[in-house]
Design goal:
With 71 residues, this protein is mainly beta. It contains one helix and five strands. Strands 1-2-3-5-4 form a five-stranded mixed beta barrel. The protein is globular and about 25 Å long. The model has no long low-confidence stretch (mean pLDDT 90).
Length: 71
């Protein structure tokens, strides 16, 4: 509607704990790929380079918060 993508909170909650890949640089916000879907996300600390494996830590107000995966 106003240029915002609407995401289903249930779907966002379902990916908490999942692994994905940083689709863009997260500095701190950007996009991640989880499965076949792209989601807006925020790095919990610092920035995360594109292509880095990430883990979704939590969902808050329609936003996913991620950290770099330890492998």
């Amino acid at each position: 509607a106003d240029g915002f993508e609407s995401f289903d909170t249930g779907k966002l909650l379902s990916v908490v704990g999942s692994r994905g890949i940083a689709h863009t640089v997260l500095k701190p916000s950007g996009k991640v790929i989880i499965g076949n879907d792209v989601y807006p996300a925020v790095a919990e600390t610092g920035f995360i380079s594109r292509g880095t494996a990430v883990v979704v830590r939590r969902e808050e107000q329609g936003q996913l918060y991620v950290v770099a995966a330890d492998n």
